[in-house]
Amino acid sequence: GAVVSQHPSWVICKSGTSVKIECRSLDFQATTMFWYRQFPKQSLMLMATSNEGSKATYEQGVEKDKFLINHASLTLSTLTVTSAHPEDSSFYICSARDRLAPESRETQYFGPGTRLLVL
Amino acid sequence: GEDVEQSLFLSVREGDSSVINCTYTDSSSTYLYWYKQEPGAGLQLLTYIFSNMDMKQDQRLTVLLNKKDKHLSLRIADTQTGDSAIYFCAESKGYQKVTFGTGTKLQVIP
After folding, report:
1. If 0-12 CB within 10 Å is exposed, 13-18 middle and 19+ buried, where does residue B79 land?
2. Chain segment B5-14, per-residue pLDDT in tens
3. Is B53:B66 a contact under the CB 8 Å cutoff?
């Protein structure tokens, strides 16, 4: 089946530093990837939609200068949390849509998540 | 806008059936999903159903959709301790964004 990986799986950083999270589709090509954020005991909130070769589309309330998204290839999207603060501590999950999936099948494949702790 | 709601917690005994319920507000949803999240892990797609279907069965899982009432349910037969997790209901319209429910924590008592 389709596999999506994330790296790192967890990261601890000091306040003010930037952290880059990678999302890779391992056995399929993804023109579209999604970045979600999940707070403890809460649901997933979509942060942005990342399209290969173009600018990401951010959801309302998500600062694009704070959360930089780059989708430079069909298998890799990165999320950079710039000047991280403790309130950015969260579980970040990416998902990817297989560009070759039949239009009749709507699925997103989720990565295992990256736990970020900002001290 | 879209809104997806679930009860927060369900406790069942091992071997019993579990039924997790979900309601949604967007009548134009075309896909409805059930995801499973184990502690500290990402999401695993369990099953999904098109809005023009009213039932889908996959081994121990049965999904029922009442489109008129905008109600979706997931039944897990012969629930096992390994089924303990958080279950998210979600909906989308075509290839647009997926909106997740609040999640139902399923606790299976041995």
Report:
1. buried
2. 998 899 999 9
3. no
Q: Across-strand partners of B86?
A: B37, B105
**Alpha-carbon Rg of chain B, whole angstroms?**
13
B103: nearest CB among A43, A59, A108: A43
Of B31, B42, B45, the CB nearest to A112: B42
Confidence at residue A105, expressed as pLDDT on a 0 to 100 scale: 59
A49: nearest CB among B31, B35, B97: B97
Residues A119, A109: Cα–Cα separation, whole Å: 31
Between CA A64 and CA B100, with CA A83 as vertex, the angle to 5 degrees is 50
Cβ within 8 Å, pair A43-B100: yes
**Ordered per-residue pLDDT tens for chain A, 119 residues:** 678 999 999 999 999 999 999 999 998 888 889 999 988 777 889 999 988 888 899 999 999 999 999 988 899 999 999 999 999 999 999 999 887 776 655 678 889 899 999 99
DSSP structure string for B26-55: -TT--EEEEEEE-TT--EEEEEEEETT-SE
| Chain A partners within 8 Å of B102 (Cβ) | 42-43
Which residues from chain B sit within 8 angstroms of residue A42, using beta carbons? Answer: 102-103
Residues of B with Cβ-Cβ distance to A110 under 8 angstroms: 35, 42-45
